[in-house]
Structure formats: structure tokens, C-alpha cells
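JOB MANIFEST
job_type = single_chain_structure
chain_count = 1
residues = 176
[input]
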Amino acid sequence: MAKKINLTKKNILVSIHVIAICAWFGGTLSLLLLGFYLKNAHNGDQLIYTLSSMHVIDENLLKYPALATLITGILLSIWTQWGLVKYYWVVIKLVLTILIILLGIFFINDWFLFLVETAHNLGIKALDNQQFNTKWLSIIITGLFNLVCMCFMTVITYFKPFGKIKKKKATNPNGY
């Protein structure tokens, strides 16, 4: 049986979890807004400044809050009655959280670095570059996907749909 925590410790952990997801959600939303704004840049300096602001948000309001959300979510799952793999809604939240984090690690970071490098090399002409626009659109679509996933996870946290995961009964290999 998993170790359970008292109500005060649980509430502290829930508070940290909620603050982390709010920071992560806000950071994602801010990154998206700046992503849309950068398409209206009037010169190379404004484009680079906007990308630099996006980088600060990525480093401080996406990575650390995402990690804090994952860690506190896992701790809440294993230290409460919900368990990590006892309910579908908990597993769905875990999978989506890991998916969003992996998208950031393996794709968004590379796309973002390409945008910054291209802006430094081409200045405002980067906005006319097809690869720049493709990577920009990929970041926008992924950001929107992340926001939808976070909203969905918030909803299932409160409604707790899909029920409990049923354990399969072990069958006797001899047939009885």
C-alpha cells in the first residue's frame, strides 16, 4: 500500500501543483501571443527583441513549471487515493503532460533556435523566409495543442470521467 500524506501536506502539494500549471498555461499563452505579434515586426531589431522575450518565457514559464507540474502530479497520485494507474483520468493526464513536455524538448526548442538564428542572419527578411514561416506555424500549432491539452486536463481533473481501470484477472495456464 502506498504511503498517504496528511491533509495539510496534500493541500500544500495541490497548491504548488495549481500554481505550476497556472504558470505553465500562462507562459504558453504568452508565448503564443508573442508568436502572433512577431509577424507584425517592423524591423529586424523588433523581431529579435520579440524572439528574445519568447526565449525568456520559454526558459522560465514553460520548462520549470512543466517539470513542477509533472513531479507534483505524480506525488499527488501516489500519495492519495487516486494512484498513478488506478483511474483512466489520472493516466490520461500523465500521458498528456509527458507528451507536451516531450514536444517541447524534441521539437519546439529546435524550431525556436531556428527562428532566432534566422532572425539574426536575415533580420526582418526572415519573415519572408519559407522555412522561418513553417517553423513559426509549427510553434503556433503546437502551442495551441498544448493549451487545449491543459484545458482538457483541467476539466477531467474536476469531472474524473472514464472510471477506474479494471485489473485483468490472472488466468491459469492449465485452463482451470
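[summary]
The CA atoms of residues 65 and 151 lie 16 Å apart.
The mean pLDDT is 93.
exit_status = 0
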